[in-house]
Amino acid sequence: MRVFVKNKRGEALMPCSVRKARLLLKQQKAIIVGYQPFAIQLTIATGETVQELHVGVDTGVKHLGIAVISEDKIFAHGEIEFRQDVSSLLETRKTYRRSRRNRNTRYRRCKYKFNTKRVFDKKKKKWIKPSISLTSKRPEGWLPPSLENRIQHTFRWVDTFTKLLPHPKLHLEVGKFDVQKMMNPLIQGKEYQEGETFSYHEVRYYVFARDHYTCQVCKKKNKILNTHHIIYRSHKGSDRADNLITVCTDCHTHENHQEGAILWTWMMAKKKVKQYKEPPFMHVLRKRIFSRYPEARITYGSETTPHRKTLALEKSHQNDAIAIIGISKINEHPCSHFRIVQFRKKKRSLHEATARKGRKEPNCLQKRNAKNTKESLGFLLNDQVCIHGQRGFITGFTGPYVQTIEGKYITLPGKSYKQVPLRELRRMAHHNNWQYTIQIETRPIHAPPIKDGELRAIC
Question: How far is CA 139 from CA 144, 283, 381, in A?
Answer without folding.
Answer: 12, 20, 35
